[in-house]
Design brief:
Blueprint (H helix, E strand, L loop, with lengths): L1 H13 L11 H5 L8 H6 L3 H15 L3 H10 L5 H13 L3 H9 L6 H13 L3 H14 L5 H9 L7 H13 L6 H13 L3 H10 L5 H13 L3 H13 L6 H14 L2 H13 L6 H13 L3 H10 L5 H13 L3 H12 L10 H11 L2 H13 L6 H13 L3 H10 L5 H13 L3 H13 L6 H13 L3 H13 L6 H13 L3 H9 L6 H13 L3 H13 L6 H14 L2 H13 L7 H13 L3 H9 L7 H6 L1
Helix pairs in contact: 4-5, 4-6, 5-6, 6-7, 6-8, 7-8, 8-9, 8-10, 10-12, 11-12, 12-13, 12-14, 13-14, 14-15, 14-16, 15-16, 16-17, 16-18, 17-18, 18-19, 18-20, 19-20, 20-21, 20-22, 22-23, 22-24, 23-24, 24-25, 24-26, 25-26, 26-27, 26-28, 27-28, 28-29, 28-30, 29-30, 30-31, 30-32, 31-32, 32-33, ...
């Protein structure tokens, strides 16, 4: 929008009045026909020298010679507002906000264009509060904003904390009469959506005298991002019924809603609409479809679409690689990465963090170091997401010297970075080191998140430190994470491992929300404490509550049956696993069932079970038999 304004001003500056009225009176006495002066020039105070200097400034900016441009600017005998706006715009484009601000503060005459350019600069730099402060100063200065100012200012309201500022700007818009301007209203709807004020957004949407596809896109995107997916789909249907043509942003928002609804049929219907409207050629829409299939674990369909897409970018490769990694197909993921390497895409955008997770999960330090080397070449190793993944990878591979070195080199040590290293220590059984690092984290005034508590509670559980566990329980409550299933499940597990089943059961009963992870934690708690009946009772309670047991639920139950001599019950649950679910039994399930039979002396049945396994018995199974 700023570029548009600048081009408009330049165009206006170059305009000449083609048929000026003939000078009369005293002016006619001083002007000869060969030295005809345009009346427009006289009226506007146009100076040809200033115009030429402005033109020279533009050429210097295009070549990136900002310092030279400043010299020309300082030497100009007469500057106009356009000259200063050009200079401010150049500083904004090269990220020198302080110099741009200094120049604005030195101006006597400041137009809406001047303020808008710098407001846009603050927003581009992610300093939305600075942009709003500048807008407030503009208001105090007495410069009246125009519709471009409002649209620019609102475009930066992507933070939930900006609600107060958006409401204030909205009141100014109404006061100045821009509440009927479509561009401004669309920006307001979008800002309210990004601030999660969807009630305000919908009310404004209903009151708008005019709407277009952008209006619908903003609201559909807002609903899909907060999980109101059905409302987003209904709005999309209304948009189509009213005859508005969807854009690439419409399809992306609707596909996002389809992911939230876990509705593969809807996604396939949208795919059909994309083909019919010829948006399949748009890489942005293609990537949204690719992401949809990927997140539904339709890897085959994702791969087929990937090869059918007429245009691919780095995002396309990142999605398909992540899809294979998520499904544990690491070899295929690395194969796509090799294809990505021979493209001309920006190496800094390569999915290094995803690829490092392969090395971390397989504990393959050689692959990890190769990817690390490539991230250094691409200068991506200093980015927070890559740095977090490097610490995680080296930690999980047991290379804590390298992990600590990278950790120390990171400029921004976020909660995620601290948690990655703490988690690595705990996973390697270095529980005291993990606790020491957690204490250091708290001394640095870094707030833990749910993942931090899940890891540190695991350390407390393995150290059987009930007092420490209770201290952590207090912190979980204080920081508001007790409603999160992962810290809550970790608390339950900690109390169970410390032998306090009363506290474990109370923690479970106090959970406001429960999922399969919570139920598995309860079943496992009883199994760990040798309470077979309590384990079976929890399993049945889970089923009656409408939750489908998963692989972990059955394994904990079979282990409890083994340790408590519940042979018939063990056979019942193993047969249920085999015939009443879609779960494929793993080695651990067979090993637990073999143990159940062997402990009760039923060796013939154990051998028969082992003979019918879909894989060869390993050492653990042979020991159990």
């Amino acid at each position: 929008m700023t570029a548009f304004r600048l081009n408009l001003i330049k165009h206006c500056a170059s305009l000449r009045v083609t048929e000026s009225p003939k000078p009369i009176g005293l002016l006619s006495f001083h002007l000869n026909p060969p030295s005809f002066v345009d009346a427009h020039i006289i009226k506007t105070g146009f100076d040809p020298n200033t115009y030429r200097s402005n033109f020279q400034l533009q050429n210097l900016f295009k070549r990136g010679e900002v310092s030279r441009a400043r010299q020309v600017f300082e030497q100009m005998p007469q500057k106009n507002t356009f000259s200063v706006n050009l200079m401010i715009s150049s500083y904004v484009n090269c990220g020198s906000l302080s110099k741009a601000r200094e120049l604005l503060d030195s101006m006597v005459e400041r137009t809406a264009v001047t303020w808008t350019i710098l407001i846009g600069g603050y927003l581009q730099a992610g300093q939305y509060r600075g942009a709003f402060k500048l807008y407030a100063k503009m208001h105090r200065w007495g410069t009246e904003p125009d519709y471009v100012t409002f649209a620019t200012l609102l475009s930066g309201c992507s933070n939930m904390d900006a609600t107060k500022e958006v409401v204030q700007v909205h009141s100014h818009i109404i006061k100045l009469g821009y509440h009927s301007t479509l561009m401004v209203c669309n920006s307001l709807v979008d800002s309210y959506c990004k601030s999660h004020c969807l009630d305000f957004a919908f009310r404004l949407f209903k009151e708008m005298p005019e709407r277009d596809a952008i209006t619908f896109n903003a609201l559909i995107t807002g609903y899909s991002k907060v999980g109101l997916n059905e409302v987003a789909i209904k709005l999309f249907a209304e948009m189509q019924n009213l005859g508005y043509k969807p854009s690439e942003f419409t399809f992306a928002a609707v596909l996002c809603a389809g992911i939230g609804l876990d509705d593969i049929v809807l996604g396939q219907q949208i795919h059909g609409s994309v083909i019919k409207t010829n948006f399949i050629w748009n890489v942005f829409v293609g990537n949204a479809l690719l992401d949809f299939y990927s997140k539904h674990d339709y890897v085959v369909e994702a791969r087929k679409l990937f090869y059918e897409m007429p245009e691919l970018d780095c995002v396309s490769y990142n999605i398909i690689i992540s899809s294979y990694v998520w499904n544990g197909q690491f070899k295929e993921a690395l194969g796509f990465f090799r294809k990505l390497q021979i493209t001309k895409h920006d190496r800094k955008q390569f999915p290094f963090a995803t690829l490092l997770s392969i090395a971390a999960n397989t504990m393959n330090i050689n692959v990890g170091r190769q990817i690390h080397s490539q991230s250094i070449v691409a200068t991506a190793d200093s980015e927070s997401q890559v740095g977090n993944s490097l610490v995680d990878m080296y930690g999980k591979c047991g290379k804590f010297t390298e992990a600590r070195r990278i950790f120390a080199s990171m400029a921004d040590r976020s909660t995620v970075l601290w948690t990655a290293l703490i988690s690595a220590y705990v996973q390697k059984g270095l529980h005291e080191d993990g606790l020491e690092l957690y204490n250091e984290m708290r001394r640095e005034n870094i707030s833990p998140d749910q993942a931090t508590f899940a890891s540190i509670l695991r350390a407390s559980a393995n150290l059987a430190s009930l007092s420490l566990g209770k201290q952590l329980h207090s912190s979980v409550i204080t920081l508001g994470f007790i409603c999160n299933v992962f810290p809550a499940s970790a608390l339950l597990d900690m109390y169970a491992k410390c032998g306090s089943m009363k506290d474990a059961l109370q923690t479970f009963q106090e959970m406001p929300k429960r999922n399969v992870v919570c139920w598995n934690a309860l079943i496992s708690a009883y199994a760990q404490n040798g309470d077979g009946k309590g384990t079976l009772r929890s399993f049945e309670w889970m089923v009656q509550s409408g939750f489908a047991p998963d692989s972990v639920s059955f394994l904990s139950t079979l282990v409890a049956c083994s340790h408590c001599g519940l042979v018939e019950e063990g056979l019942h649950y193993f047969n249920s696993l085999m015939h009443n679910t879609n779960i494929v039994p793993k080695r651990e399930h067979y090993a637990a069932m073999v143990d159940v039979l062997c402990r009760s002396g039923r060796f013939h049945e154990a051998e028969k079970l082992m003979a019918g396994m879909p894989f060869e018995p390993d050492t653990k199974l042979m020991q159990n038999s």
